[in-house]
């Protein structure tokens, strides 16, 4: 398995309202703004996402991990007996993802871009 990037997901009331902090003060760019989730980055590997409430999942994730083969990671998670919080899904914004809960209860969004 190859991890391409790991991005913290910060829960906020209004992701757009914090844009001047991340883009103005810290100089990040905003490659993705869907209202409920806004991604700010300095490079592909240096990113932060602000999320008000996930649009399709029953719970919010605390971190997003982009992998090379999301289907293989999903199969490994199921085989290991981890709780799948959100099923493997092709989302309308171009990612295939699932949510899995760690043994300590952290919800992780595992994804690959299509």
Automatic annotation (TrEMBL):
Q: Name one Pfam family in it.
A: Glyoxalase
Q: Fetch the Gene3D superfamilies from UniProt.
A: 2,3-Dihydroxybiphenyl 1,2-Dioxygenase, domain 1 (3.10.180.10)
Domain of life (superkingdom) = Bacteria
Q: Mind telling me which SUPFAM superfamilies this protein's record contains?
A: Glyoxalase/Bleomycin resistance protein/Dihydroxybiphenyl dioxygenase
Q: Which InterPro entries match?
A: Glyas_Bleomycin-R_OHBP_Dase, Glyas_Fos-R_dOase_dom, VOC_core
Question: Any idea where the VOC domain is?
Answer: 2-113
> What name does the UniProt record give this protein?
VOC family protein
């Amino acid at each position: 398995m190859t991890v391409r990037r790991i991005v913290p997901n910060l829960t906020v009331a209004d992701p757009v309202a914090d844009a001047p902090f991340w883009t103005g003060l810290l100089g990040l760019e905003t490659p993705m703004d869907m209202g409920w989730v806004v991604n700010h980055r300095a490079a592909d590997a240096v990113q932060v996402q602000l999320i008000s409430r996930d649009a399709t999942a029953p719970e919010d994730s605390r971190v997003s991990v982009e992998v090379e083969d999301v289907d293989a990671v999903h199969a490994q998670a199921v085989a290991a007996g981890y709780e799948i919080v959100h099923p493997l899904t092709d989302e309308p914004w171009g990612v295939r993802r699932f949510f899995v809960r760690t043994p300590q209860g952290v919800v992780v969004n595992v994804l690959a871009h299509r």
